[in-house]
Design a protein that fits this description.
This protein is mostly helical. The protein has one domain. Helices cover about 75% and strands about 0% of the residues. The protein is built from 5 helices and no strands. Helix 2 crosses helix 5. The longest helix has 26 residues. It is elongated. The protein starts with a helix and ends in a 5-residue tail after the last helix. The model has no long low-confidence stretch (mean pLDDT about 85).
Length: about 100
């Protein structure tokens, strides 16, 4: 599942603006799914601490560091979710061959 999602869906001929929107949409879905998976792995005290990190200064950087320290398999989770979204998009839309 290494193929570029735009190529896998046969959407190379779409205008760049539409390609960007599609990739942004898929990125948002992956991020939301990752957040859910991270929260499932955290204990209640860790969840509370994470929520404080999200509300603090430099939240994105602090959240990334927090996750890195608390979720040892985060990189694997990222890859799994990327593969899942690619598969789902291909199953749902197939190859458009526009």
């Amino acid at each position: 599942m290494e193929a570029n999602i735009i190529e896998a869906l046969g959407l190379e001929s779409l205008p760049d603006e539409q390609k960007i929107k599609m990739v942004e949409m898929m990125s948002t879905i992956v991020q939301k799914r990752l957040m859910l998976r991270v929260m499932e792995q955290l204990s209640e005290p860790e969840k509370d601490a994470f929520e404080k990190v999200l509300g603090g200064k430099d939240a994105d950087l602090a959240a990334a560091e927090f996750i890195k320290n608390k979720v040892s398999n985060f990189d694997e989770m990222v890859q799994e979710e990327i593969i899942k979204i690619k598969q789902e998009m291909i199953e749902k839309f197939g190859s458009a061959q526009i």
